[in-house]
UniProtKB/TrEMBL annotation:
Residues 7-170 form the NAD-dependent epimerase/dehydratase domain. Belongs to the NAD(P)-dependent epimerase/dehydratase family. It comes from Aureimonas endophytica. Gene3D superfamilies: NAD(P)-binding Rossmann-like Domain. GO terms for molecular function: oxidoreductase activity. Transmembrane segments: none annotated. Keywords: NAD, Oxidoreductase. This is NAD-dependent dehydratase. It comes from the Bacteria. The lineage of its organism: Bacteria, Pseudomonadati, Pseudomonadota, Alphaproteobacteria, Hyphomicrobiales. Pfam families: Epimerase.
């Protein structure tokens, strides 16, 4: 018997949304997949909702009759301020308003390592460390983490904010050897966030069981997430094809990697034009 009647997945056409669709299918009678363009690969238990997160009315309408939301939509990388504002900040506010108005009691949000990217690797921070964003993208994650805190304290909507590190089919550089989150472990993490009996307002790091540990995730143990993958099968190949990191570079010193070295995205956009 599915735990939910209907789960909304935003960003369902993205890299992680695509793997969450089949991965979470057994948890709900219906999966409502959301994106800005129609889907041409709907499964029998899926229904689509096509809208832009910046459209408040359309976003709230898409949350109707849902029991939970897996919010993976919005800007997926560092982007110009207007994109961050519309897609990630306004869009996430619209999601939470939809949850409040439609009685939805749990949201799983794709936050990011970039919310705390300017912490040094050796600091071994926990989930309660002060935020230190490394980009406007990271700032948008901080905003939604704070928004979700408000909506739990004031309106009783539970949230799990997943600070995802590097989720790809396999590691491609040396940083990924410690920051890797396999696709299967990503599904396990989101499923744990949806099925834990009580989450309140939880922040969790999103990584597989890699050999090198750079953060302390014990503050999220109540989720019951148990990663089953790690980066070790890829280590030899990655180390053979990539140079040793410069220990003095920002991308080596800080959790956020190369995001810590990026300039302001609007300056970069202006130079392209």
């Amino acid at each position: 018997m599915p735990q939910y009647e209907r789960i909304l997945i935003t960003g369902a056409a993205g890299r992680l949304g695509t793997i969450l669709r089949p991965g979470l299918a057994h948890l709900a009678s219906k999966i409502r997949v959301a994106g800005r363009h129609p889907f041409d690969d709907l499964c029998p238990n899926e229904e689509e909702a096509v809208f832009d997160l910046s459209d408040m009315d359309a976003t709230i309408a898409a949350t109707e009759s849902c029991d939970a939301i897996v919010h993976f939509g919005g800007a997926s990388v560092e982007s110009p301020w207007q994109t961050i504002l519309d897609a990630s900040i306004r869009g996430s506010y619209h999601i939470y308003e939809g949850a409040r108005k439609n009685g939805i009691k749990r949201i799983v949000y794709a936050s990011s390592v970039h919310a705390i990217g300017f912490h040094e690797i050796e600091a071994q921070i926990g989930v309660d460390a002060p935020v230190r964003p490394d980009s406007l993208y990271g700032v948008s994650k901080n905003f939604v983490e704070s928004l979700s805190r408000l909506y739990w304290d004031k309106f009783g909507i539970e949230s799990v904010c997943l600070r995802i590190f590097s989720s790809f089919p396999e590691p491609t550089d040396r940083r990924h050897l410690w920051s890797y989150l396999s696709f299967d472990d990503c599904v396990r993490l989101v499923e744990a966030s949806l099925t834990a009996p009580r989450v309140g307002h939880t922040i969790s790091f999103g990584m597989s069981d890699n050999k090198v540990k750079t953060v302390d995730n014990t503050g999220a143990n109540h989720l019951g997430y148990r990663p089953q993958d790690n980066s070790e099968p890829f280590r030899a190949a990655v180390e053979a094809k990539t140079p040793a990191p410069d220990p003095k570079s920002l991308s080596t010193r800080y959790l956020g990697g190369f995001f810590c070295e990026l300039g302001h995205p609007d300056d970069e956009s202006a130079s392209v034009r």
